Amino acid sequence: MSKTILPLLDSSLYPQFWQQQTFTNPQTLLTAMLTADITPDAHAFTQQLLANDTYQEWINSTIFGRYLHRNFTAFYQQAEDSFNSDMPALFRQELMRHAQYLPLEQTLFFAGNLPKSVRQTKVLTTTVNPATAVINAQKTAEKATMSHSRTIVNQVRIVGKQVLGFPIRHNKRTSERLRNEVLILDFQDLRLVNELNIEGIKKSNIDHSILLRSYDLR
Length: 218
Hints:
Blueprint: H1 10-13, E1 16-18, E2 21-23, H2 26-34, H3 42-50, H4 53-60, H5 66-77, H6 87-96, E3 100-101, E4 107-111, H7 118-121, E5 124-127, H8 130-143, E6 148-158, E7 164-167, E8 181-186, E9 190-198, E10 207-217
Parallel strand pairs: 6-10
Antiparallel strand pairs: 1-2, 3-7, 4-6, 5-8, 7-8, 9-10
């Protein structure tokens, strides 16, 4: 069974007019959110996505909902359980039958440090909503008990033709609709290509840094 290729979402989203400014690509919009030039608003960006014909094509072509995503993730995060040891592989094999190729040059985002297991499992949960990634990264940094906290946001650019995944269809009546997630199920290589310290507006006396990491995924 041949895999379909999702259409490029970024080409229909950008240039993006956002809070009285125009952004030509997702990278410049993300940087503006991180430097507090504009306020990250996950709900407003979700509304932009839902009004976009390409994004509607993405989520209407998938059978993958948040309920399935939660259960799949739980299997991969479970402690050693000999009785269910084969379940992650079986679950993933079935999902791979319905996975689609992600389009070249599409940019995805995720918050926090890259989990060490990602390069082994080839499983990574991302979002197409930069505001969601920034807000989640800020929440993680706020929970840090150290005097020096760090907001880490990652952008992932699809540069290979064999990256398989799913747009996740969310329940429109819950806060999950702001996630706008894409689950990556298989790839060849994930490479860190740039790491940038960003000077944001200081909101307190706490020593706080913002780190933007850029990855290429093939």
